[in-house]
Amino acid sequence: MGEGTNVPDDRGRARQAFHLLRALLRQQKGTFAIAVGGASVFAACTVASAYVVRLIIDKLITPRFDGHTVSTHSVALILGAMVMLGVVRAVGVVVRRTWAGRTTWRVTERLTAEVVDRLAEQPVPWHRRQSTGDLITRAGVDAEAATAVLGPLPFASGVVVLVLLSSAWLVATDVPLGLAAICVFPILLALNVSYQRRVDRFYNTAQDEMGRLSAAVHESFDGVAVVKSFGAEQRETDRLSVIASRLREARMGAVRLRSLFESLLDGVPAMVNILLLLGGAYRVRSGDLTVGQLTSFIYLFTLLVFPLRLIGFTLSELPHSQAGWARLRSLLDQPVEPDPQRRLVHRDDNGVELRDVHFQHDGDREVLRGVSASIAPGRTVAVVGATGAGKTTLLHLLDGLVAPDSGTVSVPREGTQIVFQEAFLLAGSVRENITLGEEVAADAVEVALQVAEADFVHDLPQGLDTEVGERGVGLSGGQRQRLALTRALVRRPALLLLDDTTSALDPSTEAKVIANLRAALSTTTVVVVASRPSTISLADDVLYMADGEVVAHGKHDELMDGVPSYRELIEAFEHDREALDGDAAGSLT
Length: 589
Prior knowledge:
Blueprint: H1 10-25, H2 29-65, H3 72-121, H4 124-128, H5 132-146, H6 153-173, H7 175-182, H8 184-222, H9 224-229, H10 233-285, H11 291-332, E1 345-347, E2 352-360, E3 366-375, E4 380-385, H12 391-399, E5 406-412, E6 416-419, H13 430-435, H14 442-451, H15 477-489, E7 495-499, H16 507-520, E8 525-529, H17 533-538, E9 541-546, E10 549-554, H18 556-562, H19 564-588
Parallel strand pairs: 1-5, 4-8, 4-9, 6-7, 7-8
Antiparallel strand pairs: 2-3, 2-5, 9-10
């Protein structure tokens, strides 16, 4: 009555375990069967070795104590049988461990691949609602947890065979002692069931807290600059400490239960062994058993103690695996959301058109309100506006990262590339970050490097093969931006979207990059979010936005003369730039 209504009964637990194992092994039945076969060979040889021990005592040792002779042939035959059984047992262990390992590794690899594939299938809006750290945990920690039971499972299956064969052999050797010995099996089974019932909640809690901790750590790592800027180190430390303490309590609860469980697994067989030895001594004195039979009896029962622990270990891993599996399924069972790319209308030229586009973030305020604009092919257009005007959202719509709530977005059919303000680089070489594993001609890479003013890569220690470190930590902000731009240019896009991509460059380098883009990509349409007056003045046209609407669309000089709010914004940009340059100069003196 004390158990919660959400806790499954024994039948429900068995059904859950069966479904878990069937799902895990559906593509690895052959390798798992080989592992179980190796464990079964080990079990059969273990029982057979008890019989050989009996022969050694009764046929070799006892006759010598009684003064009888033993033939060399008998010694060689019996000891040879023991050696042969040992070799076969060793082969069974090797087969079991090898194929159990292969089964576990392959299933873990398959689950990880399924998670990664599902993450790749989900569109950007879905990812924006998720925690990156939690998703990483699903593909790593949870996949390993789900398959943890597969390692000991073949041995546990072999132990079942061992228990059945041993029970028959023990009863056949001596009925009273055999019945007394096999009575310990239900006791150990009851201990296992009780343990599993109580430890479930600890493993579920620990697995959930592990996901929360991974997510929190990842968030803190990503936002380390913000945390330090606002002096929130202690708050973040306290937040992580609370999650870590909950994880620790869940793990400690499981460890305490497991310690008690293993103590009983050690103590119960030991006590039974003592009782069997006492009872066996009386049976030998009465002539119902030989010394060899009693020795082999105790020998076999002693050998059973450790394998029986493996059944308990396997059952103890089940809650852990079920918790990991449940978290995996909660991700894999989510339907794939519609891809915003499919909402784009493709056109045969390189122009761009938006018609009455509305967009809001997850029921929040409307970011874009009736945006309409037309950009001719091959034009370079600067999108200008104050913070929150909807500039970045406009670029995300053009790239198909998000879908409009209403209206149409028309883009070139040939392909679009976007370069974000915060350049993301992989922890690989410069070449790998540019090509992303694709076959790209060397001259195409060189042209893209020249257009992006990224020739600095040739001065790096290994040139294009230089490792840039995690997230490009070995490069400056401007160098990372130019590499990200090179990555987009090498694919010769019909539409190039730059989200304040050159913000980390000095004005002269930025001017060169913009000029290079216009010269090298004469047919490519370039839409760039810009806040530098120097960048804005280099564009063919300006799309001026305010409060999610297009206020004006025309040349920079025309907007400066005819749109007062635009002129005020540009003057504010210039003032901020002068103040920033003054602060930088002051820091150098």
